[in-house]
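Supplementary Methods, section 5.1.

A reviewer requested that the exact input to the structure prediction be made available. We therefore reproduce it here, unchanged from the version used in the analyses.
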Amino acid sequence: MSSRSGGGAILLISSSGALFSRSPSTTATRTRTRTKTTTKFVLLQRCCFHHQNHHRKEMGNRATRTARTRTGCSTMRASATNETDLQSDDDDSAVINERRKAKVLVVGAGASGLVCAKELRQRGHEVRVFETKSNLGGVWLHATANNENKTTKTAMYDSLRTNLPREVMGYEAFPFIASSSSSSSVDARRFCSHKEVQGYLQEFAKNFRLFDVLEFNTTVKECRKKKDGEEKLAEREEEFGPKWTVKYEQGEKKELKRDTFDAIVVANGHYSKPRSARFLGADVFPGKQMHSSTYKEPSVFTNQNVVLIGAQASGEDISRDIATKAKSVYLSAKTWQNAEWGSNPNISENLFRKPNVKALLENGSVEFEDGSVVENVDAIVYCIGYEYDFPFLDPKDANFSVDDNYVNPLYEHLFVPENRSSLSFVGLCWKVVPFPQFELQAKWIAKLLSGELKLPPTKEMKIHVENFENDRKSQNIPKRHWHCLGAEQFAYNDRIAEYAKETKLKEWRWEMYEKTGINKRTNPEKYREEHNDGEVLEKAMNEELTMMMMSISSEGTRRGDSQVVNALAKENGKEKNEASSDPPLSASEREIVESQLNALSDSQMKQVKIYSSLLLEWNQKMNLTGAKTENDVLERHVADSLSIIEAIENTCPNSKDTSKPFKIIDVGTGAGFPGMVLAIARPHWEISLLDSLQKRTKFLDHVADSAGIKNVKTIWSRAEDAGKFESEHREQFDVATARAVADLRLLSELCIPFVKVGGAWIAMKNQSGLEEIESASKAVEILGGEAMSYQEVQSIGPDGNLRTVVTSYKLTETDKKYPRRAGTPQKKPL
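The structure derived from this sequence is encoded token-by-token as follows.
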């Protein structure tokens, strides 16, 4: 968007938790064409996202908001939250204060570590997550993702796709469909690429505000029990177990540091230490030998003869990938996923099945257990899995051991009995649907550490482990497979859900998993493209939609995430009764809301209703608002957005002059409040909506096109970048305003640089704004603003009180060093 001379301007910073989240380093302006577009959403998307709003609201309610800065931490820090979050925090604070608040270290920022961080924070715990790599994702972080990770061993290879449909893979709290992943992800297939999964995990971390607890380039070196006084130790350990002293290296300089934690959650996965090969002749075989962890793409095997050892998921997939380039490929295994495969050696014209390897020969041949020999073998690829590895734990100190890849003793694959809940291992089980299982385990751990639930006595836990091991022995299951669950996983999940007092996973997950397994074994070449679970998918949709209605009707009557609640929406002249999560308005509140909405003309109200309808529809696939009905949108957001017009027009009389363009920029607009509403109510104002997430700006583009709102443009950027000295947007606006809960010291640095001399900064606040005026006065002065004043407007804020509007005129140009780089204003407010 280019600025225009002669026009006033208003900058609005509205409620959006993503206001300070990661966004492009450069400002990207979207000036849209006015071509009508039609968006269609399949029923699957509706069903998979039906309760995502409810869960994400819970995230906003409980997530810790204090950004933590340490050497080597991510620079992505979400420190501004929306008004929904603020009010809900007040409601939950009493409950959280009654719980034990533990200081917890999560080791690893993969899929298991991330969901543990989410659940722990939502129970009120203080959480730090240490990740050795420079980004999150764990095994899903591709080795060639950046220069730092090129030599990192990982199970990811270029062509890898999931072997489970995304619907069953996703967390319960964050369904995994194409539109829920990051804006850079484009793989909408049900069996998607590893990049799509990485994008999904990135989006999960953003939506649940986890980046402020993630500390990258941080390697745990040692965890040891903290030695306290015997009496104190015994008392604490009886319930929660011992505390832990942790040594860790952080940052490029690998600075050695130390800290103490109440609990350690080990979530470092089991795909980092490749299993060693033990085959006769391996030491004299002249060809190349490699573990599948180092495999990335097939061209290195062009025109070669290759033997792969191991035919589980990776062996089956990699063999087919290599066969696209190699001369001949031989897949060797003791057992096959489908028993019939062993009697059908020809997979394709250059891909063959062979029994287990007997020996590797010095002349370059490979002998198999059936006596057959393949000559002139150029390379051996070991697809034989990984070993559990916890180099930072002393088995004697932590009271556990790893014997033939079995971690013991562990109560329910999670807890060492002697350590109670203070040491847990998440995600050890394999041949499972991992993400939802991690989620249930994390919920149980979080509640145990808060004191809401208790583990059985240590003696009973040990007996349980002994019984488990005896059962495995009676079935002649090799010890290295004792963490393998397979068909047992859903009974295990149900058990964990019962322990955690959580809802069990839905039945369709098991059915979809089973159907997929059958399809894979009978149609290994095409199961990712040709599906056999249509009936299950329909059942999943129906059940998801039912759960959606239940979650809406059972949320109770607390104000929760509302800004303004339960005013009238009318259809055909009659009151429309819709389910709302909030209590009815009082007579005085109703009068205030109706006075705002009645200011709109019929044509403007039509545009508002189109906006509302699209907002509710898109909210099924992305987190835009806590509103569930048209009433909620009108009463919580539209009326409140309209209330600031009076303050703007009082502060800037030239805004009433319809003969001149009046520019408005809404920064951190989120779902478009108040900017989109102002564009509807004042069509002579030119509105620019700025947000750090591209998917939100795309939604707003669609709203403007569909509703015929022609005075709106979108800008994809973060406030700190758009307002910097060299930006085209700097000091181009008459007014900057904010509809956010961030402190005025922070908002002033993000708003005032946009305001030209003679303009004004306006912030929509609740009663806390009055308390913040004095503390923010110095910041406003430094940035070139006049002393702040305030006025009340006729609107109901999120806490049920009247709005307070804080204003400050711009007296001098803002020093070019402001705003400071992203993250600094939050960490060190002026």
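Confidence is low (pLDDT under 50) at residues 1-97, 144-151, 180-185, 547-579. These observations are discussed further in the main text.
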